[in-house]
Amino acid sequence: MNITGSDTSKRPAIDRAVSTLCSTVRCAVLGLLLSLTSVLVFTPVVNAAESVYTDREDVQDYIASLVDEHGFQAEEVRLLLANAERKQSILDAISKPAERTLEWKDYRKIFLTSDRIERGVTFWQDNAEVLARAESTYGVGAQYIVAIIGVETRYGKHMGKYRVLDALATLGFDYPPRAKFFRKELTEYLLMTREEGMDPRAQLGSYAGAMGFGQFISSSFRAYAVDFDGDGVRDILRNKTDAIGSVANYFKRHGWRGDSQVIVPVALQDPAADKLANQGEALRHTVGALRAQGVVVPCADNAAKAALFRMEAAAGTQYWVGLNDFYAITRYNHSSMYALAVHQLAEAIAAARSTSTALTNATENP
Predict the structure, then answer these.
(1) Are 345 and 120 in contact (CB under 8 A)?
(2) pLDDT digits (tens, 9 = 90+) for 62-109
(3) Is residue 344 part of a domain?
(4) d(Cα 14, Cα 18) in Å, to the nearest integer?
């Protein structure tokens, strides 16, 4: 019995038609899949960063110089720079650093805070043995090592969010005012990562490419970083011991002597002496010469080299005379405000630690 009500005599023709249709559809689908596969396999992936850098003539010349001068493989460097990303936020940040836009009264507030002082005391306590060894080895007061790390990264809390590769490529190829400097630092970075066995794509740092607890730029790493724990690796990015030793070594190599006076507040007996202020960080004068011009400098040798600085404080204009070790601090960052912030933070941390120690001793030994 035909329960479907269809005419079975027509079934073979219908089956042939369906088969033909299915075959046609399968071919069409298969053709589409093959077409898509060929696109995926044979169409090159266009990297946005590659179009920014590796197609540029100046970048190609730079790659050639790395091959000629340092023995890099051209394709290796090309692929690396193709991975670099231009960051507008980096260009924005470098155009307005605090040292250029703030007066001392506002700049000081950034670093001389109770939180940074307290964290400095804690950092000192947690790393007391290493800091004592660094002070003994290099002659740099522990409070200054701690203050540098405190100013630079809040004791390792903020070590930078940018890839160093991106920072140095952006500034080296897209920041004309200092392109030469940052291109040199990019070369130093590639040499550093090759020498130290680091992945150049993976390291993080500041918008200017500075790295680690003490924020060394690549050339400073190569020149001044030390393996202070003796494990065979110079690691200032993750190893506090190496970072502490490296900061101390940097100061020592830049002329730190450990003198009793770093910078002293002064007064102007003759207002005309103001013209001697803020002529740069270099010690252009002697204490005796400044005194002869009407600068009242307490407790300093006439023969000592010195520089006069004017700072706009909350209470009005202040004058300071920086001496040898103050100049050494400015070699870390070429700013008198930076160096004075480091100095005052170092003094505040040392005073707070001394008080804390005295209170602890009094409590434990009534």
Answers:
(1) yes
(2) 999 999 999 999 999 999 999 999 999 999 999 887 777 799 999 999
(3) yes
(4) 6
- Looking at the domain assignment, is residue 277 inside a domain? yes
Helix, strand, coil proportions of the chain in percent (round to 5)?
Answer: 60, 10, 30
Q: Does a structural domain hold residue 290?
A: yes
Q: What is the pLDDT of residues 206-215, one digit of tens each?
A: 999 999 999 9
**Structural domain count of the chain:** 1
Catalytic annotation, pick one of 135, 152, 185, 281: 152
Tokens of 350: 């040392």
Q: What domain range is 274 assigned to? A: 263-355
Assess contact for 147 and 120: CB atoms under 8 A: yes
What confidence score (pLDDT) does residue 356 get?
73
322 phi, psi to nearest 5 deg: -90, 140
Show Cβ contacts of residue 14 under 8 Å, excluding neighbours closer than 6 positions: none
CATH number at residue 311: 1.10.530.10
Tell me whether residue 152 is one of the annotated catalytic residues. yes
